[in-house]
Amino acid sequence: MSKEVNSESVSLCPLNTAAAPEQELLCIFGTGDLGRSLGQRLLQCGYRVVYGSRRPHSCGPLPPGTQAVSHGAATQSANLIFVCIHRQNYDFLQTLAPQLNGKVLVDVSNNLKKNLYPEANAEYLQRLIPGAHVVKGFNTLSAWALQNGPSDSNRQVYLCGNMAEAKQAVTETATKLGFTVVDRGSLSAARELEDFPLQLFPEWRLPLRLAVGLTAAFFFYLIIRDIVYAYVVQGKDVSFRIMVSLANKVFPIVSLIMLSLCYLPGVIAAFLQLYRGTKYKRFPDWLDRWMLCRKQLGLLALAFASLHAMYTLIIPIRYYVRHRISEITISQIRENITYKFDTTMAWRTDSYYSVGILGFGLYILLGISSLPSVSNVLSWREFSFIQSKLGYLTLFFCTFHTYLYGWSMFLKPSYYKWYTPPAYMLSLVVPSVVLVLKLLLLLPCVDRTLTRIRQGWEKTDPENDSKKSLLT
Amino acid sequence: MSKEVNSESVSLCPLNTAAAPEQELLCIFGTGDLGRSLGQRLLQCGYRVVYGSRRPHSCGPLPPGTQAVSHGAATQSANLIFVCIHRQNYDFLQTLAPQLNGKVLVDVSNNLKKNLYPEANAEYLQRLIPGAHVVKGFNTLSAWALQNGPSDSNRQVYLCGNMAEAKQAVTETATKLGFTVVDRGSLSAARELEDFPLQLFPEWRLPLRLAVGLTAAFFFYLIIRDIVYAYVVQGKDVSFRIMVSLANKVFPIVSLIMLSLCYLPGVIAAFLQLYRGTKYKRFPDWLDRWMLCRKQLGLLALAFASLHAMYTLIIPIRYYVRHRISEITISQIRENITYKFDTTMAWRTDSYYSVGILGFGLYILLGISSLPSVSNVLSWREFSFIQSKLGYLTLFFCTFHTYLYGWSMFLKPSYYKWYTPPAYMLSLVVPSVVLVLKLLLLLPCVDRTLTRIRQGWEKTDPENDSKKSLLT
Amino acid sequence: MSKEVNSESVSLCPLNTAAAPEQELLCIFGTGDLGRSLGQRLLQCGYRVVYGSRRPHSCGPLPPGTQAVSHGAATQSANLIFVCIHRQNYDFLQTLAPQLNGKVLVDVSNNLKKNLYPEANAEYLQRLIPGAHVVKGFNTLSAWALQNGPSDSNRQVYLCGNMAEAKQAVTETATKLGFTVVDRGSLSAARELEDFPLQLFPEWRLPLRLAVGLTAAFFFYLIIRDIVYAYVVQGKDVSFRIMVSLANKVFPIVSLIMLSLCYLPGVIAAFLQLYRGTKYKRFPDWLDRWMLCRKQLGLLALAFASLHAMYTLIIPIRYYVRHRISEITISQIRENITYKFDTTMAWRTDSYYSVGILGFGLYILLGISSLPSVSNVLSWREFSFIQSKLGYLTLFFCTFHTYLYGWSMFLKPSYYKWYTPPAYMLSLVVPSVVLVLKLLLLLPCVDRTLTRIRQGWEKTDPENDSKKSLLT
Ligand SMILES: Cc1cc2nc3c(=O)[nH]c(=O)nc-3n(C[C@H](O)[C@H](O)[C@H](O)COP(=O)(O)OP(=O)(O)OC[C@H]3O[C@@H](n4cnc5c(N)ncnc54)[C@H](O)[C@@H]3O)c2cc1C
Ligand SMILES: Cc1cc2nc3c(=O)[nH]c(=O)nc-3n(C[C@H](O)[C@H](O)[C@H](O)COP(=O)(O)OP(=O)(O)OC[C@H]3O[C@@H](n4cnc5c(N)ncnc54)[C@H](O)[C@@H]3O)c2cc1C
Ligand SMILES: Cc1cc2nc3c(=O)[nH]c(=O)nc-3n(C[C@H](O)[C@H](O)[C@H](O)COP(=O)(O)OP(=O)(O)OC[C@H]3O[C@@H](n4cnc5c(N)ncnc54)[C@H](O)[C@@H]3O)c2cc1C
């Protein structure tokens, strides 16, 4: 079969396939795609490879320089064995248990779905062959990466296993192949490793759904209030406003609500702790889950805020805006009116912009500090200073920005088209509540109690005490 | 006591509290908040826990499934002991020295202030019980993280200790609890680890103070020159300009000054080395400290530059600006004037914007390259190419941008209100000096000498030589 | 000689130079700059240091507290020896082979150019003294960092070597000096480590050249079409447009082309795999190289897109634009015309901006996900979801943005000045081709075959089969 192999491919390993004396022999069980890909890569990095196969004579094309023999034969020559077989076929390995005694077995398998089996593949393998040292690893890589070496998404190889020496041996091989190894502890972490490649942003789902839901709802609300209203009541077609004007109302609203939803659970948690008088009772499930997706809520809020910033900045180059402005100027001249400069208006709008920009600056700071490499170099005190203290400041600035935008609008009935309040008012409800509750928590007496509770103090009411003496 | 415990909380560890045979028993000294929090977490991750207490029968509620016994009894059953006691109470541990021989003691303690004690808590513990293997660790985590497992700010656990095996054992436990371990070497690093949780941006203090000081000073200067002057001399109230116009003068000024302060120490250092003829004499203290906060100076300068960018981009949507523009247009018509298009003006302003944008782009590149994860993948040559070469280019662009802004303003007496120069001129002093000095350093003859000095060459003037022969 | 030494410099190591009993003695071969710098740092961190020199009595000033003796004498007292000698002088070390037996030799050397010698310095050293344990390391640091401890660019020390214990010993020392150690495997990685400090963005060269080339070409094209044409045909000097207007045409064009060049190789690769019916044949060299610089292509494209965004946002504050707008308004009044509001125009321009902003948002998301610390926490599935799926979406948005910009311009002969098409049309060619090809690949039948091929399936045409049976 005329088959070229990727032998000169991009590889940092020396190609001393022939000369070097200390070439190690590795064994691969399974001649499928994974086995072949891995074998090629090992060859490129100067290893010798032998395949173990159930049908050594009819197992299809293998990388040149390798051969397939029976599992038993393959086992004898190597100490490190990559198991590139599907889990369904593991059971036959049991028959090889004696030969596999003391060998290092690398389980690279993945499943098609989560929770398909009661135990992790690697743990199952270990149970089948208790005498072998099973190491879970490489499964977070794609077959493509196994064949071609690391690229951006997969420079890291996660390993776990119960025996340090076995992991060390696999680590050596992985580093030779160009990967960076992260040790994840004992084999009980295998389940986690096997779930890793299957996940697609699990912790982003809820926040994303919320964002999409809010966006859709407010778009709908604004289309009714702005577009349909103008069409029905004033007979004007302003549908073109959907693209920028409406979007630039929806984005800041969603951003502000999501930002406040990011700080609401913390406040609720604090009140719950105050009420219960202890921090050792666990939070209700919904609160727990909510608190765990605050980072994602916050980052999505930042994304919406950035869109708001961009949409705001292009306002003056829009055709519609330019047309309006020249229209106003022209009508001023034709009708010989002069609008007097209104200092209050100047103060208000300038403050409005200024507060918005400062809030956005802090927003971005929060975003930067949540980059893994940045949060890793921060101490816990520093991180929570930024996320909690500056986070509340951000929320305050953004809420204030929105109040300044509204100004006295809420007093004018003309803004309540069809008896509905302007959308910006709706967006102010949650942030205002959060800020007021937070203020309450900052009252010295409340703050003192809360601090004590968080340091482990517990309110022991007499009832409890008597119960305790009865029970213990 | 009716007490629920966070037993189903968010944990990736299997909850095989009952079945698994190989459950390890760990011991915790101390039943305070830290001890209880840590104990809960260990239980959740499948360990068995026993508490050592001075008053085992009256030590308050413990996580269910654990019990408190005397320190001696607790010690016997476990090899790994977490010491969750305050340092003040360490001394009594001395009495346990024989039982603790060969055990691994994890010191998780922190102090309330830096330099409270002459030696690190962990070193003190090691001195008290020389036969034990003390490992410092987990102290960079909050009690909250110890109880609930890692979150963003504290995925990493720092360890240090003198014995590799002891560290290995603690590492295993930490990875099981979900943390990533960073080994910081021998126990002499304990002090550093104990100081870590206490710090709140120590290296940012000086640059921040400088930034605040400069901002306040220039705000004051501009309020006098712009607002007060207009009020006193022209009788106009332009106080609204504070919010945006003034801010947008102060921010670029502070940014430019801080950027130049970031490159000034390098130039001073170079001249000092040239003058001394050696690189082996240490710099004066102030220069050392200055050089160590250049990163922070630079990043703050970038923050101010970004604010400047935002404030500039909102200019055309400001009420004041729109009003002015329409006023000008209207007056042109009413008075029937036509302003001719001025090509020089167009060239100048466009260049001004263009140079500013390119400078800002480079600025951001500097910022990106100082993210830890980015600077880690750069070689030293690459990093200093960006920070030094492109950094000077940034400084040049930003300075040039300011000169273009000023243009011929410095020639017109009307700009020197109350005999004070416009603020932008003040901001040009330091950058111009830095650039000129840098140009001098780039002269071939100077550059050659400097390079030789930095490669270790030393000027040996005759006087020195004679001294040397006398002394050695 | 009156020589102060940097002894109080910025160091986190305790300065227990005198008291501590367990001070380790290290040996340094070579008293040049590197040796002296390293020695100083070691002293500061509490080690004792002895120098090995060929002329121990005339080797110039050494850090106080150290002394130079003969190589042989120096060797006896220490187990860890830093070899700070140039490779050219290694050969004399052979004479010391017996004394160096079992010692750890740290090779810190670098070469002036790549591929100067057939084998890595460290491998050469190992060959000269087979009985020693050579560890390559510290060479990625500058002498400056060796003397002063880690700073931002060089917190990480890369090590490689064949013996784990030797590496462990060097690791201990490096962590004591304040560095973080990354183990790069066996000594065969030494070459890579020695090349690392020499490189200056090697993988950025090609994309950078491409970007510069495209920018220059389009600038030239547009100067002809816009500036020269206006001058020759209309007799107007609009040269000032170079600074902003032209730049803001060139940048988006280059960005779009580079973005599409980032996705073109993937499409070509897919068609090649379809045509060949296998994924095991390696790609032609040019394609391989192209695919390896896609990240850089993409990031440069993002940089150009950001410049485009900034240049667009400053449009309304430009003198030229303000002048034009007021001119138009004035002429409307003087000539008493009223431009009617054109809803189609409003829809089109607003869509144009909106699509552009969304595309830019995705662009930035791609950029963020390619930060090392972010891509490290993503699973391979997540990373390729962002880079591939959202990447194509970005390309689609940006292309659509450009089509909306062009609108019906391509129908109007007046836009074909001197029979050349507007530049934006040229920029649409590659992206359109890429998108069409990608659409073809998404057809169910094609997609199915491709997926099978990528899972390892191979088309076995009869010819091949017969060949195979003949050959094997
Ligand atoms: C742009 C952006 C980025 C963000 N990135 C992140 C991120 O990377 N990571 C992240 O986690 N969040 C992130 N967030 C969300 C948010 O900023 C943080 O969750 C923030 O810490 C919430 O502050 P808090 O004071 O409400 O909550 P917390 O500080 O978590 O406190 C709230 C509650 O938690 C409990 N608690 C916390 N600490 C203790 C303790 N020591 N002892 C006892 N109980 C305690 C208490 O019940 C308390 O009431 C981000 C937000 C934004 C807008
Ligand atoms: C946005 C932004 C981000 C920044 N981020 C960072 C950052 O992450 N990290 C950081 O350090 N700085 C950062 N800076 C600050 C600044 O860019 C750097 O400090 C830059 O390296 C200074 O360049 P330099 O040429 O003046 O100094 P250097 O390259 O440090 O040289 C100046 C002096 O240092 C000494 N020196 C340096 N190298 C040697 C050597 N090999 N041998 C002998 N002596 C030597 C010499 O005395 C020399 O005169 C940042 C700046 C900005 C604006
Ligand atoms: C701002 C920005 C940042 C970027 N950052 C990065 C970055 O950090 N890292 C990066 O790599 N790219 C980056 N890129 C470039 C680009 O987004 C990616 O390369 C992207 O993955 C290309 O997608 P694709 O679908 O064309 O290619 P791929 O997903 O690589 O697929 C293309 C071809 O590769 C081969 N292939 C890939 N996977 C397999 C497989 N599993 N089995 C068999 N064959 C396979 C096939 O031949 C396939 O036809 C960036 C781009 C931009 C605009």
From TrEMBL, chains A, B, C:
It catalyses: 2 Cu(+) + NADP(+) + H(+) = 2 Cu(2+) + NADPH; 2 Fe(2+) + NADP(+) + H(+) = 2 Fe(3+) + NADPH. The keyword Iron applies. Its cofactor is FAD; heme b. The chain crosses the membrane at residues 210-233, 253-275, 296-317, 352-378, 390-411, 423-446. It comes from the Eukaryota. It is found in: Endosome membrane. One of its GO terms (biological process) is iron ion transport. Keywords: Copper, Endosome, FAD, Flavoprotein, Ion transport, Iron, Iron transport, Membrane, Metal-binding, Oxidoreductase, Transmembrane, Transmembrane helix, Transport. Residues 253-386 form the Ferric oxidoreductase domain. InterPro entries: Fe3_Rdtase_TM_dom, NAD(P)-bd_dom_sf, P5C_Rdtase_cat_N, STEAP_metalloreductase. It holds the Pfam family F420_oxidored. Its main location: membrane. Residues 27-111 form the Pyrroline-5-carboxylate reductase catalytic N-terminal domain. GO terms for molecular function: cupric reductase (NADH) activity; ferric-chelate reductase (NADPH) activity; metal ion binding. Belongs to the STEAP family. PANTHER family: DUDULIN-RELATED, METALLOREDUCTASE STEAP4. This is Metalloreductase STEAP4. It comes from Parambassis ranga. The lineage of its organism: Eukaryota, Metazoa, Chordata, Craniata, Vertebrata.
